[in-house]
Specification:
- This protein has 632 residues and is an alpha+beta fold.
- The chain contains 26 helices and 17 strands.
- A six-stranded antiparallel β-sheet has the order 2-3-1-9-8-10. Strands 4-5-6-7-11-12 form a six-stranded antiparallel β-sheet, covered by helices on one side.
- The chain is globular and about 65 Å long.
- The two termini are 31 Å apart.
- It is an enzyme of class 6 (ligase).
Length: 632
C-alpha cells in the first residue's frame, strides 16, 4: 500500500515537482520513497512506500526490470502474487525478492496488458515500457485504489491523491459546482462515478479500466479490461450453491491474510465484519488476532454487544475506541485534509478513529466487510427490486411481501413516499418556503445548479434486483465508500483489505437467481446460509441492520453546535453562491427546536464549508511548481 505520482511529457520533466507531489502523500508511505527518471528525462515516477510484503529493500519502488526496459510504481496489493509467481517461474522467470511488485513487473513483461486478467488484488499503477515507448496504467476492478490524472498541455500527470496533483502549477483547482451539488443531494452520487472529478482539470480511471499513453503523441487511450458479466447459472442444489460461495469467500479471506506485517480486522458487530473475523480466525488457528471497534455508549448506534459475541466466539483480542464529537471539531482540519472531498456523514470520522486505533496498536493491515451490502443484497430497500424480479418471473409474491413487511417494516415504500420522491425540486422548494418545513438538501441549494442524477447503465440481461445491486456496486454507494476507506486508512498509514470486493465473489453472486440472494425474507441470504456453523447464530440471524452510524443528532446538539452555527452565520457561507442561506439558518433553528432528524441534513453544508476552508484554501495558498524542467 503506497502513494504513487508521476509525470510524462513532451519535454524534460523536473524531478523536484514529482518529489513535491509525493511529499504531500507521506502518510500513504512512511517507510520509504523513491524517484526515477527515464533516460531522456521525459518521464519521472515517484513513490511513497508502506512496506507490507517483502519489507526489505528488494521491494522498494519505483522498481526496474533486470534489463532496465520497464519501471513500475504501484499502489496496492496483488493478493495472488504467489500463484502468479509460480506460473512465471515455471516459464523461466527469476526473482530477486518476494514482493508482489516484482511479480507484477514480471507479469507485464511476460503477458503485456493481458496480465491484468491474472491479478486478484486492489491496485493502481503506472508502468514505463521503454521498448514500446509508452506508459501503461491501470486501476483494480472495484476501484479500491485511486488513480487520478490530468492532461495539461504537453504533459500527463497522475497521482493517488488530489492534493498531489494540485501541487503542479499547470493543473487548475476550479471546482465544478454541479458535481458538488449532486454530492450534497445524494452523497453516493456525483463524485466517484464518472471520469471527471469535482475538479474539471482532474480525471480518474474508473474501476476496471486501464490507460495506455503513447509517449510520442501524448494521447492517452483508455479501455475497460473487466466488466462484470454474469455467466451461466451455477449448477447444483441450493445447499451446493451455498457451500460453493462459502469456499470462494473463505479463499478470498485466505489471500487477504498474506502479509509480512501484523494483520487484524475492523469489527463493527454487523454481519459482514463479523463474518470476516470468524473466517480469519478459522484460517489462522489459535494465533493472536486483533480486532478494532468503534463504540457509541448509551446510543442505539452502539453495536458493542454484538461485537463482543464475536470476540468471545473467536478469542480475538479486542480494542475499542469511542469517537468523540468535540474531538471531531478539533480534528476537522486534519480529517478533511486527508479525505480530500466532503464526506457524507460523521460515520466517516468514526471510521477514521478506528484506523487510528489500529495504528496505536501497530497493526498495519485491516480486513473489513465493505462491499457485502451492495454485492449480496444487504440493504432493506433491495426488497422492492427483489419483488419486482420475482413478479417478472411470473411468481405470486403476496405472501412473501407480507413476510417482508413484518420483518423489515421500512423496506417497502408507501405510495405517499413514492409520490414525494418523484416531486420536482422546484415544487418542493415552493412548498417548503410556504410551510417552513422540508428536509431535502436540494431545497437549500442555489437555483440553477444541475443536481440531476446520472443515468447508470447495467447489463441488460440482469433482473431488477441485480440491476439495483450492479448500480450500487459499481456506480453509487460502493465507489464512494471505497474512497472513504482508502483515505481514512491511509491517513494513519494503515492498509484496508476487503474480501467481499474479490471479483470472484461478485461473479458468482451475479449468476444467481433472486431467491438465493434475498429469499426466505433475508437480506444477504447467500452469505447467511454459507456461514452456518462459522458465525455465532445471534449474528447470523440478526435482521436489524444498523450501519456504522454515530448518534449524529446528539453530536450536533452538543459539542458540534457552536461550530455549526458559526459556519452557517459566516460571511464565507453567505458569499459562496452555493447556498440558500436563509433556508439553512431556518433549518438550524428548527433543529434546535426539537427536529433532531435534521442533523443529517445540516451535516452537508457544515462538511462542505469545512472542505473549502481546510482543503481548498490551504492548497490555494501554497506555491506550486511547474512540471517543465526549463521552468525550474
Amino acid at each position: 500500500m503506497c502513494g504513487i505520482a508521476g509525470i510524462a511529457a513532451l519535454a524534460p520533466v523536473t524531478p523536484a515537482t514529482v518529489a513535491a507531489m509525493t511529499a504531500t502523500m507521506v502518510h500513504r508511505g512512511p517507510d520509504g520513497h523513491g524517484l526515477w527518471s527515464s533516460p531522456d528525462g521525459r518521464v519521472v515516477l515517484g513513490h511513497r512506500r508502506l512496506a507490507i510484503i517483502d519489507t526489505s529493500a528488494a521491494g522498494a519502488q519505483p522498481m526496474a526490470s533486470a534489463d532496465g526496459t520497464r519501471v513500475l510504481c504501484f499502489n496496492g496489493e496483488i493478493y495472488n502474487y504467489r500463484e502468479v509467481a509460480a506460473r512465471l517461474t515455471a516459464e523461466g522467470a527469476t526473482f530477486s525478492g518476494h514482493s508482489d511488485t516484482e511479480v507484477l513487473l514480471a507479469a507485464y513483461g511476460r503477458w503485456g496488458e493481458d496480465c491484468l486478467a491474472e491479478l486478484n488484488g486492489m491496485f493502481a499503477f503506472a508502468l514505463w515500457d521503454g521498448v514500446r515507448n509508452r506508459l501503461f496504467c491501470a486501476r483494480d476492478r472495484f476501484g479500491e485504489k485511486p488513480f487520478l490524472f490530468a492532461t495539461p498541455p504537453g504533459a500527463f500527470v497522475f497521482a493517488s491523491e488530489y492534493k498531489a496533483l494540485l501541487t503542479v502549477a499547470e493543473i487548475g483547482d476550479d471546482v465544478d459546482p454541479s458535481l458538488l451539488a449532486r454530492f450534497l443531494v445524494t452523497s453516493a452520487d456525483g463524485l466517484d462515478d464518472r471520469r471527471q472529478s469535482v475538479f474539471p482539470a482532474i480525471s480518474q480511471l474508473l474501476p476496471g479500466e486501464c490507460l495506455t499513453l503513447d509517449l510520442d503523441s501524448m494521447v492517452p487511450a483508455i479501455r475497460r479490461y473487466w466488466t462484470l458479466r454474469p455467466g451461466a447459472p451455477l449448477a447444483g442444489s441450493e445447499t451446493e450453491v451455498f457451500a460453493r460461495f462459502g469456499e470462494v469467500l473463505e479463499d478470498s479471506v485466505r489471500l487477504r491474510l498474506r502479509s509480512d506485517v501484523p494483520v487484524g480486522s475492523c469489527l463493527s458487530g454487523g454481519l459482514d465484519s463479523s463474518a470476516i473475523v470468524c473466517l480469519a480466525r478459522k484460517l489462522r488457528g489459535d494465533g493472536d488476532y486483533h480486532v478494532f471497534t468503534g463504540r457509541f455508549p448509551g446510543s442505539e448506534a452502539d453495536e458493542w454487544p454484538y461485537a463482543e459475541q464475536v470476540v468471545a466466539a473467536t478469542g480475538a483480542t479486542a480494542h475499542v475506541v469511542t469517537p468523540d464529537p468535540a474531538r471531531l471539531v478539533a480534528e476537522l482540519p486534519h480529517f478533511i485534509w486527508h479525505n480530500e472531498l466532503p464526506v457524507g456523514s460523521s460515520s466517516q470520522y468514526a471510521q477514521y478513529c478506528v484506523f487510528r486505533l489500529a495504528a496505536e496498536h501497530s497493526v498495519t493491515v485491516l480486513l473489513d466487510g465493505q462491499g457485502a451490502d451492495e454485492i449480496l443484497g444487504g440493504y432493506e430497500q433491495y426488497f422492492m427490486p427483489y419483488l419486482a424480479a420475482r413478479r417478472a418471473a411470473g411468481l405470486d409474491v403476496r405472501e412473501e411481501e407480507e413476510a417482508i413487511r413484518a420483518r423489515y417494516p421500512a423496506a417497502l415504500f408507501s405510495r405517499a413516499m413514492t409520490v414525494k420522491r418523484a416531486m420536482p425540486v422546484w415544487l418542493k422548494r415552493i412548498l417548503a418556503d410556504l410551510g417552513g418545513r422540508g428536509s431535502d438538501v436540494a431545497l437549500g441549494l442555489a437555483a440553477g445548479l444541475d443536481i440531476s442524477a446520472a443515468a447508470h447503465a447495467a447489463p441488460p440481461d440482469l433482473d431488477a434486483l441485480r440491476q439495483a445491486l450492479h448500480r450500487d456496486s459499481f456506480h453509487t454507494h460502493l465507489p464512494t465508500l471505497l474512497r472513504y476507506g482508502d483515505r481514512n486508512s491511509m491517513a494513519h498509514s494503515r492498509e484496508v483489505r476487503l474480501p467481499f470486493c474479490d471479483h470472484r465473489v461478485a461473479e458468482l453472486a451475479f449468476t444467481l437467481p433472486p431467491h438465493l440472494l434475498m429469499g426466505e425474507t433475508q437480506t444477504k441470504r447467500l452469505m447467511r446460509e454459507s456461514l452456518r456453523g462459522i458465525l455465532p447464530e445471534a449474528i447470523r440471524c440478526r435482521w436489524n441492520k444498523r450501519g456504522f452510524r454515530p448518534p449524529q443528532e446528539q453530536w450536533l446538539a452538543g459539542p458540534m453546535l457552536p461550530a455549526m452555527r458559526e459556519t452557517l452565520e459566516s460571511p464565507e457561507f453567505a458569499g459562496r453562491g452555493l447556498w440558500r442561506v436563509k433556508w439553512w439558518r431556518s433549518v438550524l433553528d428548527r433543529f434546535e427546536s426539537g427536529e433532531t432528524g435534521l442533523a443529517w441534513v445540516l451535516w452537508r453544508p457544515f462538511v462542505t464549508e469545512a472542505w473549502f476552508r481546510h482543503f481548498l484554501a490551504p492548497l490555494r495558498a501554497t506555491p506550486r511548481l511547474s512540471w517543465r524542467k526549463d521552468a525550474a
